[in-house]
Specification:
Strand content: 5-15%
Strand order of the largest sheet: 1-2
Order of helices and strands: HEEH
Length: about 140
Protein backbone atom coordinates (compact mmCIF):
# COMPACT_ATOMS: atom_id res chain seq x y z
CA UNK A 1 0.00 0.00 0.00
CA UNK A 2 2.78 2.29 0.51
CA UNK A 3 3.30 2.19 -3.21
CA UNK A 4 -0.31 3.13 -3.82
CA UNK A 5 -0.07 6.04 -1.48
CA UNK A 6 3.14 7.16 -3.15
CA UNK A 7 1.51 6.91 -6.58
CA UNK A 8 -1.57 8.74 -5.36
CA UNK A 9 0.57 11.47 -3.86
CA UNK A 10 2.60 11.80 -7.12
CA UNK A 11 -0.63 11.92 -9.13
CA UNK A 12 -2.08 14.56 -6.80
CA UNK A 13 1.07 16.69 -7.02
CA UNK A 14 1.18 16.24 -10.80
CA UNK A 15 -2.49 17.21 -11.10
CA UNK A 16 -1.91 20.27 -8.92
CA UNK A 17 1.11 21.28 -10.98
CA UNK A 18 -0.83 20.67 -14.21
CA UNK A 19 -3.69 22.85 -12.92
CA UNK A 20 -1.23 25.63 -12.05
CA UNK A 21 0.42 25.36 -15.49
CA UNK A 22 -2.97 25.34 -17.26
CA UNK A 23 -4.11 28.32 -15.16
CA UNK A 24 -0.92 30.25 -16.01
CA UNK A 25 -1.36 29.39 -19.71
CA UNK A 26 -4.95 30.63 -19.63
CA UNK A 27 -3.87 33.87 -17.97
CA UNK A 28 -1.13 34.36 -20.56
CA UNK A 29 -3.61 33.64 -23.36
CA UNK A 30 -6.06 36.20 -21.93
CA UNK A 31 -3.27 38.77 -21.66
CA UNK A 32 -2.18 38.07 -25.25
CA UNK A 33 -5.77 38.33 -26.48
CA UNK A 34 -6.30 41.61 -24.61
CA UNK A 35 -3.03 43.02 -26.00
CA UNK A 36 -3.95 41.85 -29.50
CA UNK A 37 -7.37 43.45 -29.24
CA UNK A 38 -5.88 46.74 -28.04
CA UNK A 39 -3.33 46.71 -30.87
CA UNK A 40 -6.00 45.83 -33.43
CA UNK A 41 -8.27 48.59 -32.12
CA UNK A 42 -5.40 51.08 -32.23
CA UNK A 43 -4.49 50.03 -35.77
CA UNK A 44 -8.15 50.25 -36.79
CA UNK A 45 -8.45 53.82 -35.42
CA UNK A 46 -5.23 54.90 -37.14
CA UNK A 47 -6.34 53.33 -40.42
CA UNK A 48 -9.80 54.90 -40.19
CA UNK A 49 -8.34 58.31 -39.42
CA UNK A 50 -5.99 58.05 -42.40
CA UNK A 51 -8.85 56.93 -44.65
CA UNK A 52 -11.07 59.78 -43.42
CA UNK A 53 -8.27 62.30 -44.05
CA UNK A 54 -7.70 60.90 -47.52
CA UNK A 55 -11.43 61.04 -48.27
CA UNK A 56 -11.59 64.65 -47.03
CA UNK A 57 -8.62 65.58 -49.23
CA UNK A 58 -10.22 63.93 -52.26
CA UNK A 59 -13.51 65.68 -51.54
CA UNK A 60 -11.75 69.05 -51.24
CA UNK A 61 -9.83 68.41 -54.47
CA UNK A 62 -13.04 67.49 -56.29
CA UNK A 63 -14.76 70.61 -54.94
CA UNK A 64 -11.91 72.80 -56.18
CA UNK A 65 -12.00 71.13 -59.60
CA UNK A 66 -15.79 71.54 -59.74
CA UNK A 67 -15.55 75.22 -58.80
CA UNK A 68 -12.88 75.79 -61.42
CA UNK A 69 -14.96 74.04 -64.07
CA UNK A 70 -17.99 76.11 -63.13
CA UNK A 71 -15.93 79.29 -63.22
CA UNK A 72 -14.56 78.26 -66.62
CA UNK A 73 -18.11 77.69 -67.94
CA UNK A 74 -19.28 81.04 -66.60
CA UNK A 75 -16.34 82.83 -68.21
CA UNK A 76 -16.86 80.93 -71.46
CA UNK A 77 -20.54 81.92 -71.46
CA UNK A 78 -19.61 85.54 -70.80
CA UNK A 79 -17.11 85.38 -73.66
CA UNK A 80 -19.79 83.96 -75.95
CA UNK A 81 -22.15 86.76 -74.94
CA UNK A 82 -19.45 89.34 -75.67
CA UNK A 83 -18.70 87.71 -79.02
CA UNK A 84 -22.40 87.79 -79.95
CA UNK A 85 -22.71 91.39 -78.79
CA UNK A 86 -19.75 92.52 -80.87
CA UNK A 87 -20.89 90.55 -83.91
CA UNK A 88 -24.27 92.25 -83.67
CA UNK A 89 -22.63 95.65 -83.14
CA UNK A 90 -20.34 95.05 -86.12
CA UNK A 91 -23.26 94.14 -88.39
CA UNK A 92 -25.16 97.28 -87.35
CA UNK A 93 -22.09 99.46 -87.85
CA UNK A 94 -21.56 97.99 -91.33
CA UNK A 95 -25.06 99.03 -92.24
CA UNK A 96 -24.46 102.62 -91.22
CA UNK A 97 -20.98 102.75 -92.79
CA UNK A 98 -18.74 104.97 -90.75
CA UNK A 99 -17.21 107.58 -93.03
CA UNK A 100 -14.05 109.56 -92.54
CA UNK A 101 -12.89 112.70 -94.23
CA UNK A 102 -9.55 112.55 -95.91
CA UNK A 103 -7.81 115.86 -96.45
CA UNK A 104 -5.37 115.85 -99.31
CA UNK A 105 -3.76 118.42 -101.58
CA UNK A 106 -6.45 117.74 -104.17
CA UNK A 107 -9.23 118.50 -101.66
CA UNK A 108 -11.51 116.75 -99.20
CA UNK A 109 -12.82 113.25 -99.85
CA UNK A 110 -14.95 110.89 -97.82
CA UNK A 111 -14.01 107.25 -97.48
CA UNK A 112 -15.48 104.32 -95.60
CA UNK A 113 -13.66 103.61 -92.36
CA UNK A 114 -12.72 100.07 -91.36
CA UNK A 115 -15.20 98.99 -88.71
CA UNK A 116 -12.78 96.42 -87.32
CA UNK A 117 -10.54 99.19 -85.98
CA UNK A 118 -13.37 100.65 -83.88
CA UNK A 119 -14.75 97.28 -82.83
CA UNK A 120 -11.35 95.95 -81.74
CA UNK A 121 -10.55 99.10 -79.76
CA UNK A 122 -13.99 99.08 -78.17
CA UNK A 123 -13.74 95.38 -77.39
CA UNK A 124 -10.37 95.75 -75.67
CA UNK A 125 -11.67 98.60 -73.54
CA UNK A 126 -14.84 96.72 -72.57
CA UNK A 127 -13.01 93.47 -71.84
CA UNK A 128 -10.47 95.37 -69.71
CA UNK A 129 -13.22 97.00 -67.69
CA UNK A 130 -15.08 93.70 -67.32
CA UNK A 131 -11.90 91.97 -66.18
CA UNK A 132 -11.38 94.66 -63.55
CA UNK A 133 -14.93 94.18 -62.31
CA UNK A 134 -14.78 90.38 -62.35
CA UNK A 135 -11.37 89.91 -60.77
CA UNK A 136 -11.14 92.72 -58.26
Amino acid sequence: MALDSILTRIQDETSAQARVIVQEARQQAEKLLATGRREADKLFRVTMLAAQNLAAQKKQRELVICRLENRKRVLQTKQEILDALFAKTKSKLKKSQIRKQVVAAQGHTEESESIDFFINALRRDIETELAKLLFS
